[in-house]
Structures are given as structure tokens and as C-alpha cells.
Design brief:
Blueprint lengths: L4 E7 L13 H7 L2 H7 L3 E7 L16 H21 L1 E6 L5 H15 L3 E6 L20 H5 L20 E6 L4 H7 L5 E4 H7 L2 H13 L3 E7 L21 H14 L2 E7 L10 H13 L13
Parallel strand pairs: 1-2, 1-3, 3-8, 4-5, 4-7, 5-6, 7-8
């Protein structure tokens, strides 16, 4: 196993939706032993503390929740991601999924600097393909993939430069997509794998196909893991529970395949809301999944008593 420098950034982003609690996520991951788990696998771990948003002035909006704060987070996290990717493998401890507005943007900037294509693996029950104009809820955690692919109506956000090519994105685990998103997604080249596809054909085949494309292009791979990718029966600490998600075993298989591929260059751990957790259960599951992505094998996995 290749040992890496894993750089932890706390991203206590709680502006992407109205239900509060994700700002406690970074502390929960630290308490659940993420750094110790990665060090136990032989990696060097550097915890750079929590990112803070750039200065912003909040304004009232009819529909959108905490727009200016989310823009501040996007700016700061893009800068952190750029620096982290120069120094090692950054892992962002969220925080709601609006943090990926910044982390993916930073990864895009770094990839352009080193002249490699960026690919994104989105492990999520939702497609997060809204724009500021199409979101009915006004919650910006549903907009990151819309933003980074260059959809319109993101006034005030940092400029993208060249948008992320749609064909460089795979969303796996879909089971809750709004009508507006569905209509928009059907006209894209984004690779979409919903839970019926997984039920019928398994999760390994579509993931392997995507990873082969990343490898063939000498691509960098940003992985964004949402708690609600997993079934809420095993990962309850999320405000957007959708029954019928991935099993623990499917989650670990994805992470083990990522490690085997050697392609992952940055990682988001998002939407953990410790306020909704059961004795730290979900935080520990997410730490275990991150450890699998960094080399923990099946026979190394500790027994948990919840």
C-alpha cells in the first residue's frame, strides 16, 4: 500500500440548508478517531483545523437560504482545496453538501494547473444539480453539481473558468431526484446509477467502468461521500433520510475499489448531523468507510458495539 499525506480540513458548513447541526460534523469525525484510523494504516495525517468562510454580509432573500454565507464558504474552501491538493490528499470533514461548491472548484483549479482532467464521483441519494433559480427549497446543498458544470444563475459565486465536463461525473446511489433536476439531467452526459440499477446489476460494475475511464485519462478523482448514500437504518445522522440506500457492505466495496484503483486525490465526508446520531454510530461508519478508501481491508475491520 502506498502511504500518503492525508490533510484534514474541518468544514463546519451549516448554511446549505435550514436544518441545523452539520456544523458539529468535523468534531464528530475527530472524536470518532479518523486521524488515528488513517495513521494506523501508515499514512501521515496533518489536521489543519477548521476552515472559516471569507467575510460576507448576509441579506434577506425571498427563496434562497444563507446565500452570502455559502458564497463565503465556497471561496474559502476552494482555496483550501487548492493548497491541500498541492500538499497531499485533502479530506474535508463536513458540513453539509454545499461545501462541495468550494472543494470541487478548488480541485478543478488544481487539475488545470497540473494539466490533468478532473473526475468527480458523487455518492449520494440526490443529484444536487439545481441552480439558484430552480431550487424550490432554497437550500444550496442541492446545487454543487449544477454550479461546477457551468449551469446558469450562480451570480455572486467565484468564477469557474472552464466548467467540469459532464461526462467526467458519475452519480451513484440516486433515489430522490426533483422534477426540475430530472428534466435537466436527462439532457446531460453525467453518468447516473440509481438504486434500481444497483439492485439489478450490482454496484461494482458501473463503478469499475467509471474508474477505468479515469485511469485511461490519467485523471484526478474527487470523491464526495454523502451520509445519505447509505441506508438510514445504518447511517441515521442525516437530515435528508431516504430509505432504500446502499448497504454497509456496498459502501465498503465502493471504498475498497477506490483504494485498489489508486485514483482518489481528494475526499468530502458530508451531511453528518451529529445532533441526529445514535451514540456516534453514523460518525463511526463514515470513519470506517474513509479508512477503507485509504487501505483498510475486510479482515482488518474492528468490531463495533453500538
Amino acid at each position: 500500500m502506498t502511504h500518503q499525506t492525508c490533510i484534514l480540513y474541518g468544514a463546519p458548513v451549516d448554511s446549505g440548508k435550514r436544518r441545523r447541526g452539520c456544523l458539529m460534523g468535523p468534531d464528530a469525525y475527530r472524536t470518532a478517531g479518523l486521524a488515528e484510523a488513517l495513521e494506523g494504516l501508515g499514512h501521515r495525517v496533518e489536521d489543519r483545523g477548521n476552515v472559516t468562510p471569507t467575510a460576507f454580509s448576509a441579506k434577506p432573500h425571498d427563496r434562497l437560504h444563507a446565500l452570502e454565507e455559502t458564497i463565503g464558504w465556497t471561496t474559502a474552501l476552494a482555496e483550501a482545496a487548492e493548497v491541500g491538493l498541492r500538499d497531499g490528499l485533502p479530506i474535508f470533514l463536513g458540513g453539509d453538501h454545499s461545501l462541495a461548491l468550494g472543494t470541487v472548484l478548488g480541485a478543478m483549479r488544481h487539475a488545470e494547473t497540473v494539466k490533468r482532467p478532473l473526475f468527480v464521483l458523487w455518492l449520494d441519494a440526490h443529484s444536487d444539480f439545481h441552480t439558484l433559480a430552480t431550487t424550490d427549497s432554497g437550500n444550496l446543498h442541492g446545487t454543487p453539481l449544477g454550479y461546477v458544470t457551468g449551469r446558469p444563475d450562480f451570480d455572486g459565486f467565484p468564477p469557474l473558468g472552464t466548467p467540469l465536463p459532464q461526462e467526467n461525473i458519475a452519480i451513484i446511489g440516486l433515489r430522490s431526484v426533483d422534477d426540475a433536476e430530472r428534466a435537466a439531467l436527462q439532457d446531460t452526459a453525467i453518468h447516473r446509477v440509481d438504486m434500481r440499477d444497483i439492485d439489478e446489476s450490482g454496484i461494482a460494475k458501473p463503478l469499475a467502468s467509471f474508474l477505468q475511464r479515469v485511469a485511461a485519462a490519467n485523471g484526478m478523482l474527487h470523491v464526495s461521500l454523502d451520509v445519505d448514500f447509505l441506508d438510514p437504518s445504518v447511517a441515521p445522522a442525516v437530515g435528508t433520510t431516504v430509505p432504500g440506500g446502499a448497504t454497509i457492505r456496498e459502501g465498503h466495496l465502493v471504498m475498497e475499489m477506490l483504494h485498489d484503483s489508486g485514483l482518489m486525490t481528494s475526499l468530502d465526508l458530508v451531511e453528518l448531523n451529529p445532533f441526529l446520531d445514535e451514540r456516534g454510530r453514523t460518525a463511526q461508519v463514515m470513519v470506517d468507510l474513509a479508512a477503507s478508501a485509504l487501505g483498510r481491508r475486510v479482515f482488518d475491520r474492528p468490531t463495533r458495539a453500538f
